[in-house]
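User: I'm putting together a small comparison set for a docking exercise, and I want a reference complex before I start. The sequence is below, and the ligand is beta-D-fucopyranose. Could you produce the 3D structure with the ligand included, as structure tokens?
Assistant: Of course. I'll restate your input first, then give the structure tokens for the complex.
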Amino acid sequence: MPVRDFPDEFLFGAATSSHQVEGGNDNCDWWDWELAKGSRDLSGSACEHYQRYPEDIAMARDLGLNSYRFSLEWSRIEPEPGRFDERELAHYRDMALRCREFGVEPIVSLHHFTLPRWLSANGGVLSPGSTERFAAYCAVAADALEGAARYVLTINEPMILVLMGYVDGVWPPGKRSPTAALAAARRLVSWHLAAYGRIRARHPDMLLGVAKHWIDFQPLDGHRALHRGGSRLQSYLLNRWYLGAVRQAQDFIGLNYYSTRYVTGPLRGVPLASEDEPRTEMGWSISPQGLYRALLALRAYDRPIMITENGIAAAQDDQRLAYIVDHLAAVSKALHQGVPVIGYQYWSLLDNFEWAEGYRPQFGIIGVDRATQHRTVRPSGRRYGEIARSGRLPKGT
Ligand code: FCB
């Protein structure tokens, strides 16, 4: 029997988020942002995943995946402050149960960038009572998931939300203010801590974490102290600070990893080391060794690690397959060195609404025809499924 590259129980899956795939999600800050031309496209009907989830989860299962990461939409569940919609709670519970029925482990995020309009209209993350609001919503959501979902992520990429929404100002709420950014980062720490405490007390069996983005910051020129110091500083600010602040309140670490970034100063950097470095359709570097480095660095936090996102926007599907295989090889290498990686969720199951970039980037292992909603499994999806079923990478990797 050939040796497996991954353990039997390893969770191979794919990820989505509510606003990016559901369609008709018009009671949140992102919809307002789109109407104000903050994205190239309107999310509109997206992938109609709100209706089509049984078919989509079945497709993931048929590929050979044994897990699926999706998110709950807070603005549907709590359309007005303090009013929780039982039908929406039942909808998301059904998604998790559907996964179970198919032998697919659900991994559920409670917050993935979008805020209910009533909250964004009142100062959003920075509104005075937002921590209590978030924790109350998380408690209700976790109750609905009782017995259906074990892995629960409170927040997706808190520091990316801060960066895009409060530093670059290209996502809601469109601010460019270091003071507000610092306050938002702190607030998102208290959101997680409050939610963790609340859920932990009610559902001791749930495994709780954050989907934490990690950028592999490297000095552009390793001989220059400014580049080296800058990369340490940026890694601290974007990667490590938040993880340290929530350290005692995580049962596992969720890792979203995409690329290496080359640092040229304290707050400066470039996405590519040179003009001819291979890149994705987003212009991001392709750097499996960055994932390996991230996994080794995360070992210090002494928790199991689930890769909750990793993926590529690619116009050519063979580029996607190579990306998946090379990144999984990096995971396997880390596993063999004792890093406790428990799963890998490819971003994304479906081509979907990529925030300010709209529908152009294609991340999916399943393509979606925007006009007909027809789904087409890409060859990369089939091959990824074969890796998932066998637990083995293609020979020669
Ligand atoms: C991550 C987000 C996810 C998706 C990918 C490409 O930062 O969590 O929603 O947009 O990037």
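The pocket of beta-D-fucopyranose is lined by residues 17, 20, 156-157, 160, 213, 256, 309, 347, 354-355, 363 (CB under 6 Å). The mean pLDDT is 98.
User: Thanks, that's exactly what I needed.
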